[in-house]
Amino acid sequence: MLQIVVTGASRGIGWDLVRALAAVPGRRILALSRNGDRLAVLEQECRRDFPGTEVRTYALDLSEPLPAGFDSFLTHYLDRVDVLVHNAGLLVHKPFAQLDRADWLRIFDANVFGAAELSRALLPWLCKSPRPHVLHIGSMGGFQGSSKFPGLSAYSASKAALACLAECLAEEWKPLGIAVNCLALGAVQTEMLQEAFPGYQAPLGSAEMGAYIAHFAVEGHRVFNGKVLPV
Question: CB within 8 A of 176, min separation 6: which ones?
């Protein structure tokens, strides 16, 4: 039974990613997000649509320290972690001159520090998997040499940090047999994108991208490790 953890699962790509993963029977999926109400709906839908898969949810705000009860919850639900997808993220569209320290900390807390802390906390579970994969969901905004857009300096910098962290962990955890990769996504039609850029129409929807990420999360580490791949 493949055991998978997905963050940022309450909407957009994360929501569709969980559903794409759950469509294959015999998996155990833990979906995380700070929005507990939306997670409850996701869990109900997955139970209805994919009865052959176990989907559980846990309300978790990765911009805050991990709660004391989280480790106990993991112990009761998961034997190991085969796949960990860091999809949670915060996008702030604001000119650089208007960004203050609180903005930078809020963005890096959500997009980098939370992912780093969760990876560290789940390391013992990853080590129990015969072939674990940690997948960071980055952005083309944080991909070196790509076109950059005004108003996304903090977001893009945080995604660049997440991509570099994937490269560093891939090397550091290579002796443990843990593969770590990063997918640098282009624009995807999600609620977060619409909130930041009203009226913009992206070439791909979250269902299409969620299906692609689901496949890569399960199979990509057979070919790649320590890679930041533009999508």
Answer: 126, 127
pLDDT digits (tens, 9 = 90+) for 205-229: 678 889 999 999 999 999 999 999 9
**Distances, alpha carbon 138 to alpha carbons 7, 156, 230, in Å:** 13, 9, 9
> How far is 107 from 115, CA to CA, in rounded Å?
12
How far apart, in whole angstroms, are the C-alpha atoms of residue 82 and residue 128? 8
Count the neighbouring beta carbons within 10 Å of the beta carbon of residue 70.
15
DSSP string, 17-78: HHHHHHTSTT-EEEEEES-HHHHHHHHHHHHHH-TTSEEEEEE--TTSPPPTTHHHHHHHH-
- Nearest partner of 119 among 92, 83, 67, 143, judged by Cα: 83
Tokens found for residue 100: 């203050």
pTM for this predicted structure: 0.93
Among 44, 61, 49, CA closest to 23:
49
